[in-house]
Amino acid sequence: MTTVNTSTPRTAADPMALVDVDHVRFFVGNAKQAAFFYAYNFGFTIAQRADLTTGSRDRSRYLLTQGNIRLLLETPLSKDDPAAEELRNYGDGVKDIAFTVDDAEAAWKQAIKNGGESAYEPRTMSDEHGSVTTAGIKTYGRVVHSFVSRTGSYDHKSLRNGGLLEPGFEPVPHLAINDLNEKNPCGLMYVDHCVGNVEENRMNHWVEWYENVMEFKMFKHFDDHDISTEHSSLMSKVMASGNNLIKMPINEPAEGLRKSQIQEYLEWHDMTPGVQHLALRTNDALHSVNALRERGVDFLQIPDVYYETVWKRIEQTLLDHGQTPVKEDYDRIKDLGILVDADDEGYLLQLFTMPLQDRPTLFFEIICRRGSQSFGKGNFKALFESLELEQERRGNL
Ligand code: FE2
């Protein structure tokens, strides 16, 4: 593994400079109900909505927030809405990873100039308090990247402080679940990375797409020898925005004796690329995973045998590179079933949820970095063995 990316400073004049992950938009079958799933299980605040009660007659939308994470759950209200067809084809999942930029129209124009294809043209929503301009380009499969620029009380700082997402949204009236979550925080802070599954032999195409269209750089590189198990494997490359704000690993299925998890995803996703997982960052993995487990989050089960070998590997790696040892309690890590990995820069703690919907497609990762900027390569084998056990239980191996 080699790090080939160096952070490129960006100037305000650069239209492709990303300020933040503005929000991640999901198409879901029932936003009103899905909001409670994510609020109860993961501690998100059900903050804002735009639905029939607020005058939105085409789609129902709920904005969920936690730390600097904003999930926008969106449901079409008519069968003729293209989102309804996507729901039929893919089930619930991520439609849009939206980025805050200085000027959405300028970013969109630059992306098109770079070879990108428009998903939708620039549009501005405004009222007496300010405006929000969005414009979208198509990335892999069914996914788009929206560029979002904001003014007045809709600006980025206001949004981060709990301001409204855009004109038409209203705060959700008092909900007991929001009180419960405020008293019992899960500690999720922001989107660390967002992983896409693409078709076989198309990984390099999408790597080049992120280089050319989004002006991203390659961050880390794995080959299939790193990430293979006896039965299945994948190939993965990580793309990062110029300022390393967002990292977007791209997976493709690789040759294996049995069906890979990437292949399973594609088969349940109408053979169409899409987002496989969102990694949500915490500063305290023990607290977050414990809180999520208490709420009933279904995590991948890590075999006990994993902990028989992991500490020797981690300690040796950290020692070899002069890094400080793992400060978290080993027994607590094992009790909570958390994965650990180390590299030349430090270590990380991570854990993966089971699919968030009936189809084995999108899941979350909880990640805590202690210096390490990688993605848990040493855990891929353990992860895939666990995933395959679950695939076998679903009869999909
Ligand atoms: Fe990940």
Q: Which regions contain 5 or more consecutive residues with pLDDT less than 50?
A: 1-7
How much is the radius of gyration in Å? 21 Å
Count all strands and give the number.
Answer: 17
Give a quick account of the main beta sheet: strands, pairing sense, barrel closure: 9 strands, mixed
Overall pLDDT = 91
Give the percentage of residues in beta strands: 25-35%
CATH structural architecture of the largest domain: Roll
Helix-and-strand structural type: alpha+beta
The CATH class of the largest domain is identified as Alpha Beta
Number of DSSP helical runs = 11
Q: Give, in spatial order, the strands making up the sheet with the most strands.
A: 6-7-8-5-1-4-3-2-9
Query: What is the helix content?
Result: 25-40%
Summarize the structure.
It is built from 11 helices and 17 strands.
What does this structure look like?
The structure is a single chain. It contains 11 helices and 17 strands. The protein is of the alpha+beta class and 397 residues long. The longest helix is centred in the last third of the chain and has 18 residues, at 377-394. Strand 2 and strand 3 (59-66) form a beta hairpin. The chain folds into 2 domains: 13-183, 2,3-Dihydroxybiphenyl 1,2-Dioxygenase, domain 1 (Roll); 188-394, 2,3-Dihydroxybiphenyl 1,2-Dioxygenase, domain 1 (Roll). The strands form 2 sheets. It has a 9-stranded mixed beta sheet with strand order 6-7-8-5-1-4-3-2-9. Strands 11-12-13-10-14-17-16-15 form an 8-stranded mixed beta sheet, with helices on both faces. Fe (ii) ion binds next to strand 10 and strand 14. Fe (ii) ion binds at residues 193, 195, 277, 279, 365, 375.
